[in-house]
Amino acid sequence: MSIGRKVLDLLKDEINEADYNRYIKQVSYCTEHSKSDLARFNAPNLLIANWVKTKYSNKIAHLFELKTGVRPQIEIGLPQKRNKLKASKKPEDIATHNKPVTHSLLNPSYTFENFVEGSSNNFAYVAAENVAKAPGAIYNPLFIYGGVGLGKTHLLQAIGNYNQNLGKSVIYTTVEQFINDFTRHIRNGTMDRFREKYRLCDLLLIDDIQFLSGKTQTQEEFFHTFNELKDANKQIILTADRKPKEIAGIEDRLISRFEWGLLADIQAPELETKIAIIKKKCEINHVLLNNEVIEYIATVIDSNAREIEGILNKLHGFSRMMNKDLTLEFTKDVLKDHIKEKRDNITVEDIIKVVSKELNIKPSEIRSKSRTKNIVYARRVAIFLTRTLTQNTMPELAKYYGMKDHTSVSHTMKAIEKLLKEDANFKLKIDELTNKITSNE
Ligand code: ADP
Ligand code: MG
C-alpha cells in the first residue's frame, strides 16, 4: 500500500465519518507526481479538491510527518496528464533531475534568499551562511537549536541546497530516517554500504537530533560517523529543540562533541519579523494580501511560522470557493474558528502574566494601587484584555483590579477603545498581546 493511501486511511480515524465518506473517499494519492517533500492527490472536481485542501491539508501533512519524518507540501488537484505536466515544468526542475539521488529530501524553497532575517534568528542565520560558504572550515559541528516552527529545518536545508547546487554531496536526514536506515542495513548485513553513504559525504545534515535520545545502538554508530567526518574536515550540522546539555538520554561523549563547534539558537520572532515572513510566504506562493490583512495574520498566529502556510492555504481556498476578495473582514471570518479555539480557558492570571512580562513590570504591581504611569497603563491594558477575553463582568473586574466600582472599569474600556481607533501602533500592540495570551506560549 502506498504511503499516501496509508495516510488517508489514518485520516479516517481522525475526522467525522460524513466528511470522510463524502470527500476523502473520492480523493486518491498520486504516486507518480509525489516526491518526499510533495504529496500529490487527485480529486474528481475542483470543489472537492479545494475543500479537502482547505480543511485537511494540515492534518494530512502532519500524518505524513508522523510516518516519514518529513512534512511534505500537500497538493490536491484534478488528475494531470503526463505530457501536460512535463511541458509545464520550469527549466530548473528538469535540471535537478540529472543530479545525484541524495538531494531528493531537500525542499528547494528552503533557501537563504527565502529566509527572513530578524534579531530573533540573526545569529543562526549568519552562522549557517558562513558554514554553507566554507563547509568543514570554521565551526564543526554547527548546532542550531530552538522551538518548533522557528526555521531550524529551513536553515539546515538552506545550507544543503546551497552546497548541492555547487555539486557537493549532501545528506539530509531526520534522526528517524537515520535510525531506520541503520536497522535496515544491519538486518540485511550491509553495514559497509551504510558507512560508505554517511561517512563519504561532504556535508551531513541531521534534523531534530534530540530524537536520538535512548537509542544507544544508533548513538554508538553515529559517534563513529561523527568522528570520521570531523577528522576528514567534512561538515556536520545538527538541529534540536534544545541545547545539547539539556537533551537527556544521549551519551556524554556525543553531547560534548555537539558542543565542539558553534551553538546557535533561534528565538521566537518579534512582530515585524512575523510580518516579513508572511510577506515572503505570500510572494513565494503567489498570494496577494494587503498590509492590513498581513498584520492581522501576524497577530493571530503565535511564534510558530508553520501556521502561516496553513492559514494562507485556507484563506486562498475559501476566497476561491466563495469567489470573494481577501478583505480584512473576510479574513477575520475565515480565521474565526482558529482564534476561537485558542480563546477557551483563558484566566485572569494568564492575562496578567503576559501583560506584565511584555510591559516589563511585576505581576503584583498590576493589581496594586500604584499611580506610576507605566503601571497604570499596564493595569488599564490588563483590564481591557480581561474584559474582552474572559466572561468576567465589570463589577467582578472592579473588585479584582481594586477599582472603585464598575463605572471605573467602564471608563477604562471606553478610553482604550478610543485609543485603539486613533493609534494604529497601539492597536497592533494590543493585538499582539491578545495573541500571546490566546496562544498559551
Ligand atoms: P523548525 O524546523 O524550527 O520547526 P521550520 O524550518 O520547519 O521550523 O519552519 C516552519 C515554516 O516556517 C517553514 O515553512 C519555514 O520556511 C518557515 N519559516 C520559519 N522561520 C522563517 C524565516 N525566518 N523566514 C522565512 N520562513 C520561515
Ligand atoms: Mg524542523
Task: Profile the largest sheet.
Answer: 5 strands, parallel
**Widest β-sheet, arrangement of strands:** 5-6-7-4-8
Name of the level-1 CATH class of the largest domain: Alpha Beta
CATH-assigned homologous superfamily of the largest domain: P-loop containing nucleotide triphosphate hydrolases
Alpha-carbon distance between the termini?
Answer: 39 Å
The assigned CATH architecture of the largest domain is 3-Layer(aba) Sandwich
Describe what this molecule looks like in 3D.
- With 441 residues, the chain is of the alpha/beta class.
- The protein folds into four domains: 3-96, GMP Synthetase, Chain A, domain 3; 122-266, 3-Layer(aba) Sandwich (Rossmann fold), CATH 3.40.50.300; 283-344, Orthogonal Bundle (Helicase, Ruva Protein, domain 3), CATH 1.10.8; 348-439, Chromosomal Replication Initiator Protein Dnaa, Chain: A, CATH 1.10.1750.10.
- The chain is 57% helix and 9% strand.
- It contains 22 helices and eight strands.
- It has helices at residues 3-12, 17-22, 46-68, 82-87, 91-96, 122-133, 152-165, 175-188, 191-199, 216-231, 252-258, 271-285, 291-300, 306-322, 328-334, 336-343, 348-358, 363-366, 373-389, 394-400, 406-422, 424-438; strands at 28-29, 38-42, 73-77, 142-146, 170-174, 203-207, 235-240, 262-266.
- It has a five-stranded parallel beta sheet with strand order 5-6-7-4-8, with helices on both faces.
- α17 packs antiparallel against α19 (373-389).
- The longest helix has 23 residues, at 46-68.
- The chain is globular.
- The chain starts with a helix and ends with a helix.
- Residues 83-104 have low confidence and may be disordered.
- The chain binds adenosine-5'-diphosphate and magnesium ion (MG).
- Residues 114-116, 121, 148-154, 277, 280, 305-306, 309 line the site of adenosine-5'-diphosphate.
